[in-house]
Write a structure and sequence with these properties.
The chain is an alpha+beta fold. It has three domains: 1-32, no CATH class; 69-246, Sandwich (Jelly Rolls), CATH 2.60.120.10; 256-371, Sandwich (Jelly Rolls). Helix content is 16%, strand content 32%. It has helices at residues 3-14, 16-31, 190-196, 199-206, 366-372, 375-381, 387-394, and strands at 69-70, 78-80, 83-88, 100-106, 111-116, 122-128, 130-136, 142-147, 152-155, 160-166, 171-177, 188-189, 223-224, 246-247, 262-267, 279-285, 290-295, 301-307, 309-315, 321-327, 331-334, 339-344, 350-356, 364-365. The chain is elongated, with a radius of gyration of 30 Å. The structure holds manganese (II) ion (MN) (2 copies).
């Protein structure tokens, strides 16, 4: 029931005083200037409030855009006898709550000791050199794999693992973890555990005399230098393809997902079943080209720049955006749902290791959306833009 009819019924019951009320109600309705938000409630919302031509939204009510980039390779490394690691976590880049990244370097013969992580799974892309991993699952089953450049591994949160260089070249790789709070300074390493555990407990545990534990390392070894393990002597004990912790990203045809402007190799849970809660890949954007505007429906995105110079344009809603210059050694974090594009502005290919904190890979491209939409919708949406421009947009 609208205000006028309600007032009329009231007037019938109230006589002369009611008639005055009717006139007041009708007058108020005619002169109602309207305000944003006065457009009616529930089923009574039948028309636009008069005069409401300006959005009431105030962009200043929204938080400023955060920083999305951190110079990962500019960070102070954690160094021990056999190698080093540099990281980008939410401690360095507060926006990166969902994913952390590490660049780890092992000299020939070095090993990243037996360890596990309490709070994150580990995903890796081998940049150069060769290495071997061993992983132990709670079932008691273990897998040993040898890796070359372009290969990936994935270890579930809490599973025991180690990494050792094989051959006479150093090995280095990018690690990504599905928790921004993860740090290489907080892993559970076997030397650290043995060092801090009472000797009588160790003696009973391994059925050995207590004094034999005096020879064990003090503190955390982390990455230990050692003699070179020749590739020919590196034992391998791989699992079947459906369950293995290794994926040959640059060799497996299932990983190919090229785009206009470059190449993209990706391993989601569909190609690499072990990696059930992370997706990762390598994107190479050609000189002068870009990865067009898109967003991810179900995951945060992490970048590590292997080579080149680029710009990342990020859209954060509410009138917020940021254009960030990126170069070799940088990490970038894009929160789930944030629109983004990546442009190669250098004179060589722009190579990016990318990870997402979801095994299912999902994205939506802006140009696909425009092509799928009726012209009358687009003409309304982009008011003032000629039909000819709309048609050209749909031909891209
Ligand atoms: Mn690890
Ligand atoms: Mn993306």
């Amino acid at each position: 029931m609208d205000a006028t009819r309600r007032a009329l019924l009231g007037a019938a019951a109230m006589g002369a005083a009611g008639l005055a009320l009717v006139q007041n109600a009708a007058g108020a309705e005619a002169s109602d200037a309207g305000k944003p938000g006065d457009g009616g409630v529930g089923r009574n919302a039948v028309q636009l409030p008069p005069g409401a031509k300006v959005a009431s939204h105030n962009p200043k009510d929204i938080q400023a855009m955060p920083e999305f980039k951190y110079a990962l390779d500019g960070n102070v490394p954690k160094i021990t006898s056999g190698g080093w690691a540099k990281e980008s976590t939410l401690h360095q880049l507060p926006v990166s709550t969902g994913l952390a990244g590490v660049h780890m370097f092992l000299n020939p013969g070095a090993s990243r000791e037996l360890h596990w992580h309490a709070i994150a799974a580990e995903w890796a892309f081998v940049i150069d050199g060769q290495c071997q991993t061993m992983v132990l699952e709670p079932s008691g089953a273990s897998e040993i794999n040898n890796f070359q450049p372009g290969d990936l591994w994935y270890f579930e949160k809490g599973h025991g693992h180690s990494i050792q260089t094989i051959g006479d070249k150093p090995c280095h790789f990018i690690l990504s973890f599905n928790n921004g709070a993860f740090s290489e300074h907080g892993t559970f390493s076997i030397t650290d555990w043995i060092d801090v555990t009472p000797k009588d407990i160790l003696a009973a545990n391994f059925n050995l005399p207590k004094d034999l534990f005096d020879a064990f390392p003090k503190g955390e070894t982390y990455i230990q230098a050692g003699p070179i393990v020749p590739v020919s002597q590196a034992l391998e004990a791989p699992w079947p393809k459906e369950s293995t912790h290794k994926f040959r990203l640059l060799k497996d045809p299932r990983a190919v997902r090229d785009f206009d402007g470059g190449t993209f190799r990706i391993a989601s849970v569909d190609e690499f079943p072990a990696s059930h809660n992370m997706t990762g890949g390598l994107m190479i954007i050609d000189k002068g080209k870009q990865r067009n505007l898109h967003w991810h429906t179900n995951a945060n995105e992490f970048h590590y720049y292997l080579r080149g110079k680029g710009q990342v344009a990020i859209f954060g809603s509410g009138g917020r955006s940021k254009l960030t210059d990126v170069q070799t050694g940088d990490a970038v974090y894009i929160p789930a749902g944030y629109g983004h594009a990546i442009k190669n502005v250098g004179d060589e290919p722009l190579e990016i290791v990318q990870t997402w904190d979801n095994g299912k890979f999902e994205e939506i491209d802006l140009d696909h959306w425009v092509r799928a939409s009726p012209n009358y919708l687009l003409s309304n949406n982009f008011v003032g833009v000629p039909e000819s421009t709309i048609s050209k947009m749909k031909q891209t």
